[in-house]
Amino acid sequence: MSFAHLHVHTEYSILDGFSNIKDLVQRAKDLDMPAIAITDHGTMFGVVDFYHAAKDVGIKPIIGVEGYMAARGMKDRDPQFDKRSSHLLLLAENQVGYKNLLKIASASQMEGFYYFPRVDHEFLAAHSEGIIATSGCMAAEIPRAINQGRLEDAKSKLDWYYEVFGPENFFLELQSHDIPELDKINKALVEMGPRYNANFIATNDVHYVNPADSVLQDVLLAIQTGKILSDPNRMRMTDESYYLRTPQEMQNLFAGVPGAIENTLLIAERCNVDLGFKEYHLPNFPVPDGKTADFYLRELCEKGLRMRYQSRADDPEIQERLNYELDIINTMGFDAYFLIVWDLIQYAQRNNIWYNARGSAAGSIVSYCLEITPIDPLEHNLIFERFLNPGRVSMPDIDLDFPDDRRAEMMHYCAEKYGHDKVAQIITFGTMKARAAIRDVGRVMDIPLQEVDRVAKAIPNMPPMSIQEALDNSPDFKKLYNDAPYLHTLIDTAKGVEGTVRNAGTHAAGVVVTDRPVEEYTPLHRPTGNIGDSPINTVTQYQMSVVDKLGLLKIDFLGLSTLTIMAQACDLIEKRHGVKLTLSNIPFNDPETYELIGRGETIGLFQVESSGMRRYLKEMKPTQLEHMIAMVALYRPGPMDFIPDYIDRMHKRQEISYRHDDLIPIYGETFGIPVYQEQIMHSAVAIAGYTPSESDSLRKAVAKKKPKEIKKHKKKFISGAVERGIDQQIAEDIFTDWENFARYGFNKAHAADYGLISVQTGYLKAHYPVEYMTALLTVYQNNSDKVTLYASESRKMGIEILAPNVNYSCWGFTIEDNPSGD
Fold this sequence. Notes:
The protein contains 35 helices and 14 strands. It is α/β, with parallel strands linked by helices. The radius of gyration is 31 Å and the shape is globular. The model has no long low-confidence stretch (mean pLDDT 94).
């Protein structure tokens, strides 16, 4: 006899459930269970990950939620009557039921939240189709009425549930834990059964996978409630039975109730929900009458091509690249995506909102022609497939930077354009990192704060380590572990809860935009914490990776203070000098700018103001944009080691060598040092005959350090190189270089974009120092450390900083000319 658990809490019942999803489904598989449900408290956070994890191990996922029933109406909020809610177990039988669960989970958060995310009887009845419900645990309406001796009330509630769901879709739920009242509840339910010809199911209120996990789950409860473990009055589970019991254990417990075990399998068989990827759900972008999205996109690109390339617009290389990209975009179904981003950019331009597109989007000539990106991909040898790979179907990802004081305007436009019900911000989940786990566990174990802090700080933070890695690699931490039994227990316990979901937050920039109301694809959540100036007040319950799996469009609206500084500086320049500067016309080939950078006078410049960067720039003496792009890419832990070699080779103080002559045109721009991920891709095409799409798959395998993929590509690369007459040992050496390169390779498209902004801020500082420093100080006026730094830099530049004056001062820093006009 098998069995299916239908009442299961994962770690997404935050600080209550301790079931890791992968461990949970694997344990169910090991116990030969055909299916298992997910029923987290009031949310559906983990549903899609659970679905795929169960499918991966070959068992059926059952999608559900343990919701909350309001004491009265879901909008009533009187603490005397509405503070306490009842539990409610709901399972989706089919797609209609799943859609209704989405609406229930959304409404409970957005409309019914009061201490708990609640719905009421009226809302549940209106969204009951396709859902299987049960009488629930002892905190549900019916068991609670029985426990309180209100049997007639319990019967009345049973009547209502049977009427709403029907006898085929409502089951009486029996549980067995070390709670005396449960026997009374189970007995009453069994006695009431004949009145309804009821079907029973046996469940275990699963909160963790194995019995031994009860200790760690108890720690989570103490963290959640802010209590210490030794507090006799704190909330805790009654015993260690809240684990994934075996089918035989469940059979032994409920053998006396006909159908209680078999009906779990019946429900499992009936529940069939498909959460696999179907299609992309791009919002409907209105195109002019008589035009299709692909035709309109091509029309805009051809117009932009002539604006960008002018007399060169008909060059075969340029036309071929544009046609190639448009064909791929159309084949993959992303014409509307580019139109949507183009429309956002058009709004920004019309309203004088500065913007920038970061990341691999700069590798697209379509993005360049639509004025989404400022970088010519042909001039900088950027690869379209690094941005959009036809061999790896996934949504394009263009991250948009806006001045941080105008980001909200862009989000508001997006919400107004597509509908507030079709946009939502994206949830994030914070997990317990090593040091935080030590501190959380130390607090509930009531260990003195000073001791806990000493243990936490003994875990190396650069690079970040897990507790186990710290035990393996840090002698100081290992010594603490062995010094005292209570510290040993602290560290072992913290290691057990490390990585568990700790809290929910909101993604800093991500916004989902859909064709139909968002809640048709993902349940919604109320804003998690401070959403700042965002005009969008809903958050998806599914995190970023899940949103991608569902084929939803995600746009990142990022606030970049550098754009605020540049915009304010250029406003001052126009007012004072009559010169209108924008991101599109600030020069990046100005000798005076590079002289300023080469002197290390880069305080206040984007990405290059740190002391280490200033030192290297003084040694480098850059003279062109490519040098700055390389510095942006190299100045990071790992590749930083190559900066001295790069500088020496640039100034011909060190000999440059190449593994093969075919690498010279590819590595030449970085003096024989592979700096960019795109260089791997170009090399694979040139040396081994890879297609651009295949070269991106190679790049990803190396960057993500996927052993199986790397092994497959190594064989393919060496074989392809040998076929083209390259010595096998040389081919092997090149590939080995790439494997080492994985730790420092950087996206050139992103570096090019940020390198350009670095140079443009340098131009403003070199030619309009007063205006630039005024804008810089104004934007950072609430940061005393920054004000001190930039005021000092201003004085070095001969710019006097005056004290505030009630007669002259404004809200920010302003320019006051001396009588001499200086």
